[in-house]
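User: Last request for today: this protein with zinc ion, please.
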Amino acid sequence: MHAVALLVAPLLAYLASRAVTAAAVRGADRVTAATRLRRANRLLQVAAGLGGIALATDSLLDDAVVAAVPGPDTAGLLVALAGTVAVGGVLPALSVHLGSRPAWATVAGREPDYPSVVRRYVVVAGLLTVPAFVVVAAWLAAPAGVSGLPVVAGAALAVVAGLPVAAAALGAVRRPTPAERAVVPECARDLRVRVVATDRNPVANAVAAGVVPGLRYVFVTDALFETLDDAAVAAVLAHEAGHHRRHHVLARFLATGLALAPLFLTASGVFDALLPATAASVGLLLLVGPAVRWTEYDADAYAADRVGAASMERALATLADRGLLPTDRPPLVGLVSLHPAVADRLSRLRDHNRF
Ligand SMILES: [Zn+2]
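Assistant: Here's the final one, the structure of the complex with zinc ion:
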């Protein structure tokens, strides 16, 4: 029964994605349509991936693989886990992604190049899942108990440090052109600014990544240069530079790691109270939200000091207008969200102006 469901899941995911994404782009301008598509694509991929993984875990696939792989149990477990993620998670999610390509074609005005779409997807899926496997493998290989903690933390830190380097090398990423370079503000000059090509997926976005000095990156999509004027782009880059300068990237990693520590220690057999440990981890993770939201205000303030509050305000307002940042939202969503609403960020920037 589960095997049949696993076989038809990618087909169903593809068909659902085609229908939903076709509806999402109807009657919208290019950038809005791209934003809606990205959101629908992401939500459907998460749903298809999680549903598929639940099915695969519940099927006999896992046990069969563990039994079939020779050698220590750890190797069998890792191979079974990889199989579950690939068949249950990546395949249905890829089907959703492929189902959204015809809708993308209407936004980008070009026919999809399916082989390159699949190639890109596999690279991104690898960049997202291989790090998790490295951490899980470190955990399985580490000594049990508290002494295993530094091994797992070290593996996780190596992944956080190495991931942007791998993304820059393997992803559709290039160095800025001289014109783009000229927009980079002074405070971001010694960071590795890289432009993510989004020709088929014109979404304005930027992110700070990496924790090792010299290997700290700011990734920015080419669509951001199209969407914002030069001073506003400089403000977004200064905001991302602020995340590096004020050590937000490392702080976010440490906060998440600390929040997950009770769960890890229980899974390693140090504590045997799963329920309190889960409650502690969930409680701590809920505290990470406000901390991350504070780093957003702090990075806005950093950017306002470097390039002027007016540019930062214009960048936020334009991105909110295009539906790329939430303007307002229900309190419950705000509580667990990692980014504050733009209205709050703008009012903080205005306060910032007064001093
Ligand atoms: Zn930020």
